[in-house]
Amino acid sequence: MRYTLRGVKYSMDFGCYDKDSGEVECYLEIPNPEAVGCVERFATFLSFLLVIITFPFSLFECFKVVQEFERAVIFRLGRVRKGGARGPGLFFVLPCVDTYRKVDLRTVSFDVPPQEVLTRDSVTVAVDAVVYYRIKEPLNAVVRVADYSASTRLLAATTLRNVLGMRDLAQLLSDREAISHMMQANLDEATDPWGVEVERVEIKDVRLPVQLQRAMAAEAEADREARAKIIAAEGEIKASKALREASLVMIDNPMALQLRYLQSLNTISAEKNSTIIFPFPMDFLRTFLGGAGPSMSPSLPI
Questions:
Q1: Three-class SS of residue 243?
Q2: 149 with 134: CB under 8 angstroms?
Q3: Phi, psi of 239 (to 5 degrees)
Q4: Contact at 8 Å (CB) between 78 and 44?
């Protein structure tokens, strides 16, 4: 059994089973969407005829040039011509029936406008970034998306808000590189059907509210003061232990205290001031104060 639709080029077959006569093959022919109609062929013929009639002046409109960093996607009566994008160099188009669009393959950069983002710990920050992308498939960039540049910019702004909304403020300030890589992977995956490759994403600036900056500065200052006090206290402990060991050494040798007096006097005199300190032996004072009476000997300061 065969079913045929006239005026079509390609066919599609499928099988079915009949209990009475066994297996029956049915053929269904469907039209080819890429087949060129009579009107299109006639228009192409007229365009060729126009080129021949206006030769050699028509060559100025038929031959086009694209640069090394450019590609041209040619449409003939609304259909993409076979062979993909043309270029670099010289290519041929027919007047009235062919149109083409140039696509730049160089890396393009743009600034993502500052986005007001609410982080996971409920802090509002303004973040802006820089995105670098290039066209890797010119045909998809022209056919599958109306404006690949505007679409990539809008998608970058949305992706920036989504990625930063999953991070805390501390992670946002410290893990910029990880956030950039995550944003690049998300953008590259989304723009791949458009023929766009996102090469790099960089977090440009993170602006915090003024009140939050003051609070963070006060917190950091208090933290530094606390660490300074702890360090000073540890230094006092070490100094007291060292003085204790020095006092034990001086007890064994009484002349060490006198030498320490002379060393302090030498240090003070090197500063060129008018203060004069004369060390006086305490034992000599105790000798004189001891004879003045019991009420003055132990209690009077020396």
A1: helix
A2: no
A3: -65, -40
A4: no
Name the 3-class secondary structure at 166: coil
198 contacts 191 by C-beta, under 8 angstroms: yes
Range with lowest mean pLDDT among 92-106, 176-190, 274-288: 274-288
CA pair distance 167, 63, nearest whole angstrom: 54
- Please check whether residue 28 is in contact with residue 14, taking contact to mean a CB–CB distance below 8 angstroms: yes
Full DSSP string of 1-15: -----TT----EEEE
pLDDT band at 168 (very low <50, low <70, confident <90, very high): confident
Peptide bond into 193 cis (omega under 30): no
Helix, strand, coil percentages, rounded to 5, for the chain: 45, 25, 30
DSSP 178-223: HHHHHHHHHHHHHHGGGTEEEEEEEEEEEE--HHHHHHHHHHHHHH
Q: What are phi and psi of 64, to 5 degrees?
A: -125, 155
The predicted structure's pLDDT at residue 272: 64
Furthest C-alpha separation in the chain: 147
- Integer Cα distance of 115 and 109 in angstroms: 18
Confidence (pTM): 0.60
Q: Are the C-beta atoms of residues 93 and 74 closer than 8 Å to each other?
A: yes
Strand partners, 65: 90
